[in-house]
Amino acid sequence: MIKLSFHGAAGTVTGSKYLLDVNGTRILIDCGMYQGAKELRQRNWNPPPFDPTSISAIVLTHAHIDHVGYLPRLVKQGFAGEVYCTPPTAEIASITLEDTAHLQLEDAEFRNKKKLTSHEIALPLFTLEDVQAVEERFVSTPYDTWTKINSVFRFRYRGAGHLLGAASVELEMVDDGRRVTMLFSGDVGRYGNPLVRNPSEPPECDYLVCESTYGGRMHPPEDPYFLFAELINRAIAEKRVLLIPSFAIGRTQQIIYMIDGLLRSKMITPIQVHVDSPMAISATDIYIKYRGYHAIDPKLLAGNGCVFESKWVHLHRKRESSQTLNKLGGPAMILSASGMLTGGRILHHMINRLPDPKTLVVLVGFMAEGTLGRKLAEGADMVFIHKMPVRVKAKIVSIEALSGHADWYEILHWLETIKRAPKKVFVTHGEASQSAAMAAHIRENRGWETMIPVLDQTVEL
Ligand SMILES: [Zn+2]
């Protein structure tokens, strides 16, 4: 008997964890952290609804924290199997998890110092030692190669775009001689992004688990280069500080390369860009190492032409260096994580700069429900950061054109090569309205049977 349980990314976009159980042999697809609303984040502290020691292996789709961020806790609770991932995912996940551990420690210290915790002492969700225990379990697996996990499961990665090394997972299971195939979409990227390749054609399968982050929306046909040129020129003319919450790997590089392109085409004059992230340099090394995974001109990655060595790029790794930015005047740009404003140094910049009408906050990615990013996108004039009220006088701008997620139309385009209808499509990784819309689009356009699982629901395949 095959059982599939949805222990995350069901009714929400974060906390991805899908458990497959074939007659007692179990694997997990993704092991993500919850982000956003407090009740969701609380789940990161609760024991998981399955025994971590009973899981043989974990197959990761990509390195975003909502897909890998629960690994340190699962290993600490006794998970002792392999963690399969593509080579770039292994490196990006290491950096992301180390950075998250580091930022959580900074946050906990800040809360304890300012007495901002309702607990006796604020603790980080995991430490650097916990992350090191995860890294020992990584098994790098390239795209398009079958890997046998055990006598029940084998899988093959297919490029998904979205983020360097991101993949969909094609999975085969044997249940008492019955062969069943599944496809987990992972997060599906967009077409024509220079930083990552287009998503690969998905294979046919018996069951499909499909994401729906933008299941009810279509990205506007904006040109991000023109939008950015306009914002930067405005910041320069009005001496403003552009503050951009940005995932440190992927989005930050995308913005730096865009600015380089705008400078070369003389659409802007130079603006000083401050990358306030301890991991930006390591991230560039990953792009150099995995040239085959993206379409960036190698000349921009190393040597004289390296964009990150440009006079206008300033990297701030240490906390003291980050603090010098508090007094920075415009025109300038600050890029800092986390991308959805769920923690990290960006929060200190927000406390400092949201009350200043000279600040231009540019939101460039998906903002999950309950996050500070979503509140700002929806026009809040007062927000709470570290339990302190902060007035929003800054101008807030959202740019959807830089999204790393396919919209519903692009997901349908991605699914086009699948001719044989799956027995069922499980629509996950979306807020309720988005998943419902994606399921409706799939039913209406393809006639396939869909189901939207609820959190912790188990289905038999
Ligand atoms: Zn993602």
TrEMBL record:
KW Ligase (keyword) present: no
Repeat as UniProt keyword: no
GO molecular function, one term: hydrolase activity
Keywords, alphabetical: Hydrolase
CDD domains to which the protein is assigned, alphabetical: TTHA0252-CPSF-like_MBL-fold (cd16295)
InterPro entries hit by this protein: Beta_Casp (IPR022712), MBL (IPR050698), Metallo-B-lactamas (IPR001279), RibonucZ/Hydroxyglut_hydro (IPR036866), RMMBL (IPR011108)
Residue span(s) of domain Metallo-beta-lactamase: 14-230
Beta-Casp domain boundaries: 252-376
Identification of the protein by name: MBL fold metallo-hydrolase
Pfam families assigned: Beta-Casp, Lactamase_B, RMMBL
